[in-house]
Amino acid sequence: MHRYRTHNCSELKKSDTGKKVKLSGWIHSVRDHGGIIFIDLRDHFGLTQVVIDPKREFYKALEHWRVETVVCFTGEVTERTPETINPKLETGEIELVAEEMEILGEAIVLPFQIAKEEHAPEATRLKYRFLDLRREKLHKNIILRSKVISFIRKRLSEIGFNEFQTPILTSSSPEGARDYLVPSRLHPGKFYALPQAPQQFKQLLMVAGFDRYFQIAPCFRDEDARADRSPGEFYQLDVEMSFVTQDDVFKIIEELMAELFKTFSDKKVDDAPFIRIPYRETMRRFGTDKPDLRNPLEMIDVTASFVNSGFNAFASVVKNGGVVRAIKVPGIAGQPRKFYDDMIAFAQSVGAKGMAYIIWTGGEEKSPIVKFMSRQEIDSLKEAGKIQDGDVMFFLADKEKKVMEIGGAVRTELAVRLNLIDKNVFKFCWITDFPMYELDEETGQTIFSHNPFSMPQGGMDDLLKKNPLDILAFQYDIVCNGVELSSGAIRNHRPDIMYKAFEIAGYAKETVDEKFGGMIRAFMLGAPPHGGIAPGIDRIVMLIADEPNLREVIAFPFNQQAQDLMMNAPAEATLKQLRELHIKIALPEKKEEKKAHEGQPPAAT
Q1: Which pLDDT belongs to residue 226?
Q2: Backbone phi, then psi, for 128, in 5-degree steps?
Q3: Which residue stretches of 488-589 are H helix?
């Protein structure tokens, strides 16, 4: 018989009755039924009920056991009586009558309970993450993640992709988020950077003649946390292909995503091809480039109806170059006044000066603003929104960019409050035709709006002749249920076009050669047209697992301050380490110290 187990804790069935077996696992729970002890023994695979008779020698040792102690039981499999069968367990028809017991790993008092799934502070959960991972839901999430990655690897390998590993220690990039820097011991004063993405390397693989590449790639970005973004590090499905158009990339990813989500979720999943929405259209209709298409509400432009309106609050906005957007919500005319007041308060909380509305009910319009409007203006709104009796329109007026931002938030809030979002579907879409450039709001300088290595749609001709803000790029995002899974692009593989594209964004030829010399040299030696994408593994699993936060699908995540509370990272370096790296620490002064240095008394504490 094996030293620790002959079966796992989800394996034994009714057909095993009478067998002598050995099981090892964690004590999940203990129940005392009139002297007979029932233990749920848990391992990675499941639960098995173990029965301990008071006559056994090791019975008295139960007083010293705590839940989560690791124990090995040897005993006989017996069939449960019909009234004690547990249909929720795979082993629910049997139990193990213990004959021998060995403690393999004793547990002290737990910081939080595992079996009861009780709420625990996030800091405690992260400090004791190895305990948290024993919880059934989180444990299943991490197994799901493993299966998703295995599925992706198998599927892409079947259709001709090869998996390669790209460097972790590389050079810093001037674009994107803040880099994590690694000091070089051998080259004092110089630093490596951890890759924000394998962008340049995967393109160089295409230049090297590898036709289809993928990698489950670790990426590192020194940026703030949020629910759908993990600070520090994350993983993405990095994909690149040679001799492809945008449509070729879409086809591969659509088929992969549709099959992946259908395999691991019971929800309805969009079939390929997915809906495509140009960037400017999605901003106009939804106020975001990450639209949740489960939400049926859209924004429409009703600026023309308020050009000469008697409702001066909106007419003055239009006169000063602003716009008016409306959101039609069908059939909610019966909502109480508080609903409208609460929605106005919400709009103000996200930056609106105010929000108007009109209710169409019983053949008339009800609203504080209709008395300022002509019949023609009201009818034009009714026609624009294809209004039926019972419908309501909400209105926002401001500069276009602000209205889109606020309108997107209001659209989402309306759908949430009115329960309009179908939570049993996955709705995918592509956002296409991103602008190549945008204006920096602080400096007014023309900068890249997306990936700087993307091919402009009109090539060199557009770069030379068009206003930079009118140039579109072969850039695209794939979005699912309002979550951006990935950005991608057809790459700029021509040095002449790349130099010109970077010149427009303010980079001299010398800077491009310095920062991207490897790519430029490669492109000068014969580069194929190529393109790719990199869907986020963490976000994919978060959606499939129906979790609101990425930390619930990552085995060992950072907290929101980019700290690993379990391993105490980041931590101070020793003086010896700093000397080897030729580094001196210059910590920022505290406010009190700074004031004292400036000759001012420190603040009272």
Answers
A1: 66
A2: -110, 50
A3: 495-504, 509-523, 537-544, 575-580
